[in-house]
Amino acid sequence: MFELSSPGRRAWSFARTDLPEWAAADLVPPEHLAPEPVALPEVSERDLVAHHTRLTHRQYSVDLGAYPLGSCTMKYNPKLADVAASLPGLARVHPAAPPSCTQGWLELLSELSRALAEVTGMAAVTLQPPAGAAGELTGLLLLRAWHASQGDTGRTKVVIPDSAHGTNPASVTLGGYEALTVASDHRGCVDLAALRAVLDDEVAGIMLTNPNTLGLFEDDIAAITAAVHEVGGLVYYDGANLNAILGVTRPGDMGFDIVHLNLHKTFAVPHGGGGPGAGPVAVTEALAPFLPGPLPARAPDGTYGWRTPARSIGRVHSWHGNALALARAYAYLLALGGDGLRRVAEIAVLNANWLRRRLGDHYDVPHDRTCMHECVVSAAGLKRRTGVRAADVAKRLLEEGFHAPTVSFPLVVEEALMIEPTETESPQTLAALADALVRIAEAASVQDHHAPRTTPVGRVDEVRAARRLVATFDARLPPTGGG
Amino acid sequence: MAGYVPHTDAEVESMLGFLGLSSVDELFSVVPAALRLAGRPDPSGRRRFLDLPDGSAEPDVLAEMERLAGANLACAGPGVGAGHGLVCFAGGGAYDHEVPEAVRALASRSEYVTAYTPYQPEVAQGVLQALFEYQTMVARLAGLAVANASLYDGASACVEAANLATAVTGRPGVWLSLGVHPHWRATMATLAAGSGVELVDVPLDDGVTAWPQVAPDGVSPDPPGALVVAYPNHLGCLEDLGLARRVADTTGALLVVALDPVAAGLLRPPGEWGADVVVGEGQPLGTPLSFGGPYLGLFTCRLEHVRRLPGRLVGETVDTEGRRAYVSTLRTREQDIRRERASSNVCTNQTLIAVACGVQLAWLGTSGLRELALRCARATRYTRESLLALDGVEPLVGAPTLREFALRLPADPAVVVERMLEDGFLAGIALDADGGAGNGPGLLVAATERRTRSQIDAYVAAMDKVIR
């Protein structure tokens, strides 16, 4: 972009306003006035469009093909949600406009909250958290507020299984707690005995993902939640893997107190190359008075307004959350309905199990029993036999035209490949993906360290990027003679 | 309903057969029966598991979404006259700027929209390079060396800046100007309950921050880790960043400036004033009002703090052939590697909004950003002078303003805003005592480059009628 720049060239144009054309010096006190304008690229609109169109040709996406990243739920993002989110009546509304002119938005947010409460089996919902990690931190602050309201300030620890996502322990620290890791048992689930051994009156709660990051359902879940409740702790549900259980079982029924959802996973909000997402938090009746506010609320006369819960922990977003992402999720929910959501879980789980079975003869499957929405296989045997690691398999898969699975996670499995096909990939796509993975395993050789060779760039030197940091165009080293 | 599931019944049967199962329900036998939703048969005999309506076809979903959209009073689009949407004079961190068609078109390309976080850089050069360009442009706006790949919004950027500064200085105290947006301050207060950051509100005097008196020897009982100030601030006023820098120097605090990125087109960059961290709300550059989200948290800092930078950072490197390539870098800062020792938990951010912002900044270019800021300042000056000519309308505070200003009205501002809706105007934001940083009640008014002389004249005439 910066290399396309030519001084004086421009793409911009502005509407005619007929306003007096005061000079900058008349409008800005001299000590504040910039001595010179900010240097930005000076390009034509044609070059700008060509540049970004070329960039998009160097980018893989769900619209292009399967994206089996475990725990990321890269399902197809329906086009109707794009249209819904661009309706002027939604996209052009000012967030501080009074409720009298935002009744449609308030109804939408209110109905979405109600539907998410039903899906999770909880009593009340906040839509403010803009991402999963923000939802986690909101949940931990709710947990803190709850204990404080009980006059219980001696709790300093939150328990996390060793298979948890990295955001969990980071959120625990930012929530003012100490993360206490418990090991998984040989079945890949929380070790109930080990958990009981650490539970005491210093434990504020536990954060769990169920199904867990191995794609396995924690079948002791009722006993786990009961044990935590027994010592006065609360139980937090990380909704990263909610896709597996839609309409099958609900966190509320399992005994969870706080749930966050990732609407950019389960409810088909597109990931946007890394965001925006939406991470609503649902809670039990007992925790509802602490939710961030204001919340959309319906008055007896049928009109909508804002209401802040009595003992609210306060805001967690500048406005009302990632509203247009919430609108997309609502459109998806309307399209699917209760029946469609159940079908999502059924097929997501069917697809993952089919892959697990199909890959079982070619990769190690550390926990070879019915999985949920994702399966974790290991390249540990492959590495021993051929030197080809999970990361190499991932790069080879890029050459085969697929996105890679999540690699080297969860940390409890050596050379992990965590594969989540989602419900929107057809049996034919699954078969092609499986065939590619089998081919890669069968032909594995040291050459694979050089993969990928057919992508827009070859293997990227990550070490150099970190050692010789160039984080802006201006930080580039001046070209050397040999250049 | 399809649920966008491609499988035919025959295919499902065949896949179940491969697994040695006879029904889909058997897949869920690992879920204890007591926890499984039993489902109730509906009149047609099908089981219902959730108390939600059945799915709808696309035209019916869109009709419902259009009904909801139609129940809002949106701000008028380009070329739309009175009676077709509100003419917007509200700002307060969310501004009614033009989003050029080129920005809209490029930011809605499905390769950008439907990609994941660039964990496999070889197939993510598009998003990575777009972010690298965004980082460069945002760092230049701020006048600092490095920008991250986005945070959630202005509020989250302030939260992360306070966390960074308190970690760098080892001091929990943050002197927080009441000129920072009240919702951002509220968010900082919410998250401080967990992080241990101690916020000290610093009041405004006639519109600009009145920093606590600091003894010349710098000895203060509780020296802060950070000063946080907005430029321009929530009342639209231009803060004295030179003074803020001197207070920071005297106390040993880091200076955090929340910058409006459009006003930045005319203002001396905070980095030149000596800011250590510059944050901001990126919505005004490329994102529609969107009822408050998704917006864009801007975050920039001096190079020396880069290892504490929250969120993602894209760096330039080479591939195996020596070709230029981009990759997420300094990854060991991040939560998935550092886990409980990470200084930020941010994972999913606002990449797509950052890409749109980068496109918008390139569309504007050097001259366009300045022109945009200038046009906003002119419209604001014209609106302000016209309103001040009305009987009983006074400035709420005296400090100079640029793209937004606050007024004292001879009527209840909340009532004025309601009544002006009838005339087709979103008149501004009614400030209560907190919103007015102790100066309220008042009305906060912003006029962007989209406001024409005839719109402003009509607005002022309507205001004249309403406040009488």
Description of the molecule:
- The complex is a heterodimer of chains A (483) and B (468).
- Chain A is globular and about 75 Å long.
- Chain A is α/β, with parallel strands linked by helices and 483 residues long.
- The model of chain A has no long low-confidence stretch (mean pLDDT 95).
- Chain A has helices spanning 24-27, 45-56, 79-85, 88-91, 103-120, 132-149, 167-174, 192-198, 221-230, 251-254, 323-359, 380-386, 390-399, 427-442, 462-467, and strands at 124-126, 157-161, 178-182, 203-208, 234-239, 258-261, 281-283, 295-298, 304-307, 375-378, 406-407, 416-419.
- In chain A, the strands form 3 sheets. Chain A has a 7-stranded mixed beta sheet, sandwiched between helices. In chain A, strands 10-12-11 form a 3-stranded antiparallel beta sheet.
- Chain A has 3 domains: 1-57, no CATH class; 80-336, Type I PLP-dependent aspartate aminotransferase-like (Major domain) (Aspartate Aminotransferase, domain 2); 340-465, Aspartate Aminotransferase, domain 1 (Alpha-Beta Complex).
- Chain B contains 13 helices and 19 strands.
- In chain B, helix 3 (101-107) runs antiparallel to helix 11 and helix 6 (154-169) packs across helix 7.
- The longest helix of chain B has 38 residues, at 351-388.
- The relative contact order of chain B is 0.14.
- At the A-B interface, helix 2, helix 3, helix 4, helix 5 and helix 6 of A face helix 1, helix 2, helix 3, helix 4 and helix 5 of B.
